Amino acid sequence: MTTARLPLFPLNSVLFPGLVLPLNVFEERYRAMMRELLKTPEDEPRRFAVVAIRDGYEVAPSSLGMPDPTAQPERSPAEGFGPDPLKALHAVGCVADAATIRERPDGSFEVLATGTTRVRLLSVDASGPFLTAELEELAEDPGDEAGALAEGVLRSFRQYQKRLAGARERSLSTGAELPDDPGVVSYLVAAAMVHDTPTKQRLLQAPDTASRLRDELKLLRAETAIIRTLPSLPAFELTRTPTSLN
Q1: What is the pLDDT of residues 119-141, one digit of tens each?
Q2: Lon N-terminal domain location, by residue (predicted)?
Q3: Which is nearest to 244 in space by CA: 49, 80, 78, 19?
């Protein structure tokens, strides 16, 4: 398998291949990462790896109140992830290609990136100004009956969208075309479903596309049945994830 060493950006969320990732970068360790990426010529990919946090904080703990976006205290790049960052992070993540890195007057960055390839973390290095990781690229095996499963997932996903829009008292746009490639379908649906990070992480690291689609089909059917009986949906993410400006 192909390996590479890339800057590492831990988040309290899961990035899937093909999905867009907007970032508001204000901490010095991540500012340093963006300054380094800007050294890459514009005609070459500006890549970094995104991994979901298993145990820790994407924003380093500060004193009383919210993190100060303008403060630049001297901190380890592994701040918030314990003595061994590798153990604090999920083992499978996604490479992100930064299409836009725009520095603001205050030194923070506005970043727009897209997920490209799944990777497995082999090691994490905290010796520099930001985390870097040795990564192994993960191939996407279609598995058995991926095409038929994708069709079933799309049908269930449309029903899920309708129920979800009704539970949240929102209108649903039906004009958008959904993809038919099984791999793309599996990642789009995984990203669009309202689920916690462990569930999305499980979908990201599925052994093949068909396995991911089977899991999604079960989740969609279960969630649609639940939504049908509820007048509204609880904002469960507010109690399960810490506040973050990234």
Answers
A1: 999 999 999 999 999 999 999 99
A2: 3-224
A3: 80
Predicted confidence (pLDDT) per residue in 33-68, tens digit: 999 999 999 899 999 999 999 875 555 544 444 455
Q: Is 177 exposed, middle or buried (0-12, 13-18, 19+ CB in 10 A)?
A: exposed
Three-state DSSP at 155 gives: helix
Cβ neighbours, 10 Å, residue 129: 17
Asked if residues 28 and 75 have their Cβ atoms less than 8 Å apart, the reply is: yes
Q: How far apart are the first and last CA of the chain?
A: 32
Predicted model pTM: 0.81
The CA radius of gyration of the chain, in Å to the nearest whole number, is: 19
List for the chain the helix, strand, coil content (%; round to 5).
35, 25, 45
**Helix, coil or strand: residue 50:** strand
Place of tokens 């725009």: 102
DSSP H helical ranges for the chain = 28-37, 85-88, 146-167, 182-192, 197-204, 209-229, 237-240
The DSSP bridge pattern shows strands 20-25 and 3-11 to be: unpaired
